[in-house]
Structures are given as structure tokens and as C-alpha cells.
Design brief:
This protein has about 525 residues and is mainly alpha-helical. Helix content is about 65%, strand content about 5%.
Length: about 525
């Protein structure tokens, strides 16, 4: 049965290499075009893009600090690989937001080209093209290509490593390239540890002991050192360090069985049943959860079969998917973004797995099974991507004072408040808010840690803010906890600006200042009501 399952699926074996590459290049160019058309146009209320750009600025000053915070602490959340790439790219091609986005679009396209090259080498040109088609318009890949995040860099280097090993007997150069690319992937995202571990395990199985020893030593000196440093960082603020978030779970009062179920069972359910079907994306019918669950179950079985198919011919990729999923099951958070970097492997694994399962029953069913699945994924993904491209049409120019209509009301409200802050507040003013990174990126104003403020109770909240030197409080979406704590102190606040629908700028009045509390108290009350 295992032999029948892993029998090679060959399609279009006689297609000339030039023709195959011409078709693959066309598909990659379509992906690049879609990523550019669906791109983000600037930094708004989302925090990660601004944080990466600020870290690149810090690297330019020979540091790695959170410049947007008053204390400017050393950064411990993201590895420095992507900010360093942004710094290098910006130095050569310019620091505009669009230029940086173009880098990600090109990296995403190059990652798909590497995937095609690997699959063509392992299977056949026809199979490689078949697996590439649904990835071209995958909505998550297209959206991420057009944003300023580290996933495209991670995908590129992880697929570069796996492409180098997608051969029967990789030579020394291929091993060096694979090991170096895996370390560069880990420098972009901490999940790259799973890639390095998978490659190391594969080399152990294949008795590549020298290569394993070198990779292990370099990994310990680079990734290992950074992880130990992050674990020992004294400032343990939530979501300021992935390592810290994991280690803080040690004080969990629940039993071991309860922790394992919450950390593994529930997360596995969310990953497989909620995240993966939306990421591929599988078609779904509203109001029919049973039918959707059946389709999801078929996807999971196909994925497992695809991993088995690769276990012999592309061991590193198979082990990488297994270890990556294990990391998702044990991680404190479950977010669709964490699945995006492995989509270029997930989709081919599901397609090839479905073909293998059908072929185990009757070999003539392999192509129809793969073709039907590719058609479903391509149509569903194309419809979602087309909607995003349509939403982004005519989205420029990006203007803080007059945000384009394509942005959400929440984003536009925040940007108008940022523009007001930039024009009316002192340059050394200190803020409290839940999106300090874009505020600093656009205005240069620094903020205190919102995590530290959140640990302070309502009765001591105003005293804490004054002790921290806060001058202004910016109430936006997701900051209801701030207005809850300010409710008892609104008579000591002055309303500096209202930016509908629910963004408010409040100033902390000095002790000898007389203010009318009515407007500030009404603003706080309105924000609390809208946040509920």
C-alpha cells in the first residue's frame, strides 16, 4: 500500500524545459502583478510594518532598539534579518514604502519560482505547473506579497534551502547553500528553527554526520545564542518576546493534561479546522458546517498523504511540515499569519496527496483528483483575490489628513488623529496608545509601554501615567481598557481632538490648570460605549 501511495505522479514529462519554464514564468509574473495591485499603500494602524521600518532605522544607527518607546529598550520580538534586508534594500533603491513593498512582491514571486524548480526536478513539468497554478492567486500569498512583513523573505530562503536539497544526492555546495538559507530564514522568523531542525534530522537519517555537525554548531552559535538572550531578558512584557511568551506558560496552575489539551488539542483543532481551510482556501457553504467539515477532513487526509509521498523523495520538506505544525500546536497563539510561510508547500502537498490517495485505488484517477482539487483552490482563491484587487483600485495617494476611501473607517480615523498630532503637539510629547509604532513612524512621537500601563488598576492609573511622563492619551480601536481606567479621572483631562468614529486625543492637564471636564468625560464615555 505504501509503495502504491508513493508511486511517482508524472504529467507532461515530454514538455520541453523551455516551454515549462516559459509557462511557469508567466504564472509567476501574474502573481507579482496581483501582489502589486493588491498592495498596501502606506503605514496605518497596523503595527508590524511600522515596527520593521523602525528597526531598520535603528540598525542604521548601529542598534536594535524599539525607538518608538521612551526607554528605547533592546528589541526582543523579531529577529534582525528582515529589518536588515529592508535597510540594505532601502539604501540601494530608496526608502519609500512602495519600494519596500516591491521587494516583498519580488521575493514572493521568486519563492514560487523556486518551488516550481524543485517540484519539476522531483516530479515532472506538468505536475509542477499543476501545483503552481492555485498558488498564483492564493489570497493570503497575494496579500502578504503586497504588504510589509517578513513572510516573503522567510518563504524565499526556506524554499531556497529546500530547492537545494530537492535532488537524490546533493553535493557539498548544495548542502552549504541549504544550511545557509535555512539560517537566513530563521533570521527572518523564529519559525525558521523548524526548518533548520528538519534539515538536520534529514541529514542524520541520511548519515550526513559532518554536515549535521556543522549545521548544529552554527545554529547554536547564531539562533541558540539569540534565543537564550531573549529568554533571559529581564523585561517580561506580553508579546515583546516569543520566547518569553512560551516560558511564561510554566506558571500555569492547570494540570499537565489540561495544559497539553489546551496547548495542543485545541490549537490543532483551530489550525486544521479553522485556519488551513481558509488559507488554502477551500470553498465553503454558509450554514452547512457538516459539509464544510467533510471537505476539511478530506484536506487533512490529503495533506498527511502528501507528507508521506515526500518522506522518501523530499525528506527535508516532509519533516519541515511536520515540525512546523508541531510548533503551531504548542505555540501560545494561533494566527492565520503563522500558516502563510508554508503555503507554497501545503498546497502541493495536498494536491499530490489527493492524487496519491486516488492512485492507490486506481491509477487512472490520479490526474482527475488532482485537477479537481486544483480547480477548486484556484477558483476560490481567484475570487477572493479579485475582490481585494478591486478594493485596492484607485487607492492612492496616501495622505494622513485625507486618507483614501479604500482604507477602513478605523484606519482613516487613526490617520487623521496622527496628522493632527504631528501638526499640533510638541515634538517631545509622550503618548499612551495601543499603536505606538505607526505614531512614531509618522510623527517621531514616543510612547510608554501599553503592557505596563495595562497592569495598573483604575484607581492608580492617572498617577501612573503622570509618573511615566505621559502628556497625551490616544484612544483608538482596541483600547477600551484605557478608557475604562480613565473614566474615574476624566475631570483631569482635556479633549484635544475627536476623529470619528471612535478616535479621541486627550491631554493630561497639569495640576494647576483649570479645564472643563465635560467634553473629556463625554469622549471617554463614548469610547467606552463603542468599545463594548
Amino acid at each position: 500500500m505504501l509503495d502504491r501511495l508513493t508511486h511517482p505522479f508524472i504529467l507532461g514529462e515530454g514538455v520541453p524545459a523551455r516551454v515549462a519554464w516559459a509557462l511557469a514564468t508567466l504564472l509567476v509574473l501574474v502573481h507579482i502583478g496581483l501582489g502589486w495591485e493588491a498592495r498596501e499603500i502606506g503605514v496605518h494602524i497596523m503595527r508590524d510594518d511600522a515596527r520593521y521600518l523602525i528597526l531598520a532605522q535603528s540598525l542604521r544607527e548601529f542598534g536594535y532598539h524599539d525607538l518608538y518607546r521612551v526607554s528605547q529598550p533592546l528589541h526582543t520580538l523579531y529577529p534582525p534579518g528582515y529589518p536588515l534586508l529592508l535597510l540594505t534594500w532601502g539604501t540601494v533603491f530608496g526608502d519609500s514604502f512602495a519600494t519596500h513593498v516591491m521587494l516583498n512582491v519580488l521575493l514572493s514571486g521568486a519563492a514560487l519560482a523556486l518551488l516550481f524548480a524543485a517540484l519539476k526536478r522531483l516530479t515532472s513539468p506538468g505536475v509542477a505547473l499543476l501545483c503552481l497554478v492555485p498558488l498564483v492567486a492564493n489570497p493570503l500569498l497575494v496579500s502578504r506579497a503586497g504588504s510589509l512583513r517578513s513572510e516573503p523573505m522567510y518563504m524565499f530562503f526556506s524554499l531556497l534551502a529546500l530547492w537545494a536539497l530537492a535532488r537524490a544526492h546533493p553535493g557539498v555546495r548544495a548542502l552549504v547553500l541549504a544550511g545557509g538559507a535555512a539560517l537566513l530564514a530563521a533570521a527572518a522568523r523564529i519559525n525558521g528553527l523548524t526548518l533548520a531542525a528538519a534539515i538536520g534530522l534529514a541529514w542524520l537519517f541520511k548519515r550526513r554526520f559532518k554536515a549535521f555537525a556543522v549545521l548544529a554548531a552554527v545554529s547554536v552559535l547564531t539562533m541558540g545564542t539569540s534565543l537564550v538572550w531573549a529568554a533571559l531578558t529581564p523585561e517580561a512584557l506580553p508579546e515583546s518576546s516569543y520566547v518569553g511568551d512560551v516560558l511564561r506558560g510554566r506558571a500555569d496552575p492547570r494540570s499537565t493534561a489540561e495544559i497539553l489539551w489546551a496547548r495542543t488539542g485545541l490549537r490543532a483543532w483551530r489550525v486544521f479546522v479553522e485556519t488551513l481551510p481558509a488559507a488554502l482556501p477551500l470553498p465553503s457553504i454558509s450554514g452547512t458546517p457538516v459539509d464544510n467539515l467533510v471537505l476539511t477532513g478530506a484536506m487533512i487526509v490529503s495533506l498527511l498523504a502528501g507528507i508521506v509521498v515526500w518522506l522518501r523523495r523530499w525528506t527535508e520538506a516532509s519533516l519541515y511540515l511536520l515540525l512546523y505544525f508541531l510548533s503551531l500546536f504548542t505555540w501560545p497563539f494561533v494566527r492565520p499569519r503563522f500558516v502563510e510561510p508554508i503555503l507554497p508547500l501545503l498546497v502541493p502537498a495536498v494536491v499530490l496527496g489527493a492524487a496519491a490517495l486516488a492512485g492507490a485505488y486506481r491509477r487512472s484517477l490520479r490526474l482527475p483528483a488532482a485537477a479537481v482539487l486544483v480547480l477548486l483552490l484556484t477558483v476560490t482563491g481567484s475570487l477572493q483575490t479579485a475582490q481585494r484587487v478591486s478594493d485596492r483600485a484607485g487607492c492612492e495617494p496616501f495622505d494622513l489628513a485625507d486618507p483614501p476611501a479604500c482604507l477602513s473607517i478605523k484606519q482613516s480615523s487613526y490617520l487623521r488623529a496622527v496628522d493632527h498630532i504631528d501638526k499640533t503637539t510638541p515634538t517631545d510629547a509622550v503618548f499612551l496608545g495601543v499603536a505606538p509604532e505607526p505614531l512614531y513612524y509618522h510623527t517621531g512621537r514616543q510612547s510608554i509601554s501599553s503592557a505596563g500601563a495595562r497592569r495598573t488598576g483604575p484607581s492608580d492609573f492617572l498617577a501612573y501615567l503622570m509618573e511615566q511622563g505621559v502628556d497625551y492619551v490616544l484612544l483608538t480601536a482596541n483600547s477600551g481598557w484605557i478608557s475604562d481606567r480613565l473614566a474615574a479621572h476624566c475631570s483631569h483631562l482635556a479633549l484635544e481632538g475627536t476623529f470619528p468614529p471612535r478616535t479621541y486625543l486627550l491631554r493630561i492637564a497639569s495640576p494647576d490648570e483649570t479645564v472643563s471636564p465635560t467634553s473629556a468625560c463625554e469622549a471617554v464615555a463614548e469610547h467606552r460605549q463603542r468599545a463594548e
